[in-house]
Each structure stands twice: as C-alpha cells, then as structure tokens.
Amino acid sequence: MSSERPPLPLPPADEASILRVIAIGSLEVVNNYVVTQHRLGFAEVADWSRPLPSPNPGEIMRILTKRFSGQGDSR
C-alpha cells in the first residue's frame, strides 16, 4: 500500500464474533460478487461498503463486516 494513503478505518473488532470480507477486483467483478452473496442469503447489498480505492491500479474494494451473535447465527 502506498504510504500516501491513510489506513482504511474499520470498526473496532473487540468481539471474537466479527468477520470481515474484503472483495478486490474490477468494479464489475466486485459488484457481481456482492450481488451473488446477496442472492445466496449471505449479506444484503447495502451491508457492504461503497467501492473504495484499492492499492492496485484499476481495482476497487468493498468491505463487509458481519457480526455473529451466536454459533451459526449472523446478524
């Protein structure tokens, strides 16, 4: 990563029940992945971050933070 960019601010992971998914690629590929995860029932499209700049030219990234309240339960 370039030293010119500040680190990506993420919510604190103070709980062991947090999962972060980072999708990196072209805008089209990442958006298709986000929609696929929605169709599979994994996450709502609106739960993902907006497209963010990637360290790699021509790529973007979107981040999903999921909190699990119990074993096998995602909320």
> What is the total number of structural domains?
1
- Looking at how many chains there are and whether they match, the oligomeric state comes to single chain
How far apart, in Å, are the first and last alpha carbons? 31 Å
Question: SSE order, as H and E?
Answer: EHEEE
Major sheet size, sense and barrel closure: 4 strands, antiparallel
Q: Mean pLDDT, rounded to whole units?
A: 85
Radius of gyration: 14 Å
Look at the helices and sheets and give the structural class.
alpha+beta
% residues in beta strands:
25-35%
Instruction: Kindly state the percentage of residues in helix.
Output: 10-25%
How are the secondary structure elements laid out?
Layout: E1 18-25, H1 27-39, E2 52-53, E3 60-70, E4 73-74
Antiparallel strand pairs: 1-3, 2-3, 3-4
What does this 3D model show about the protein?
The chain has one helix and four strands, in the order βαβββ. By secondary structure, it is an alpha+beta fold. It has one domain (18-70). Strands 1, 2, 3 and 4 form a four-stranded antiparallel β-sheet that branches. The mean pLDDT is 85.
List keywords for this structure.
75 residues, alpha+beta, four-stranded antiparallel beta sheet
In short:
The protein has 1 helix and 4 strands. The protein has 75 residues and is α+β, with helices and mostly antiparallel strands.
